[in-house]
Amino acid sequence: MIMFQPLARYADFTGRARRTEYWGWTLLLWTLGVLLLLFIGFTAPSPEAERLGVASPLPWIGTLVLIVLMFAAFIPNLAVSVRRLHDQDKSGWFLLLSFVPLGGLILLLMMTFAGTKGPNRFGNDPRNQGQAEIFA
What we know:
- The structure is a single chain.
- By secondary structure, the protein is mainly alpha-helical.
- It has a domain at 2-81.
- Helix content is 55%, strand content 0%.
- The protein is built from five helices and no strands.
- It has helices at residues 5-8, 19-43, 47-52, 58-87, 103-112.
- The relative contact order is 0.17.
């Protein structure tokens, strides 16, 4: 499945990534995050249970799983974001825009743009793998 492809290319910052690869991965991460947050919210003790001293370890387990997911997904998320920018013939350094006010919004818009047609300096077009590479 396309949404698990960034895990197969865990720390590969070279090449290009199609929009479907990037947005499939993003959808997977958001879905897992929301499900874990719902789990944490539903398993949190009620005020009456806290007053009685009845505590459940389930919210802590959900929080721990969410933290592990965030750390495990950091490198693949960074790599697929860089490859997505490479598809538009832009440097991965454009990710630093996220540290500038409104830069995250600009970066989000950039991720929606189509990639360059044909090969570019970062590799062959991921849509048309059969084309020869002209930037050697």
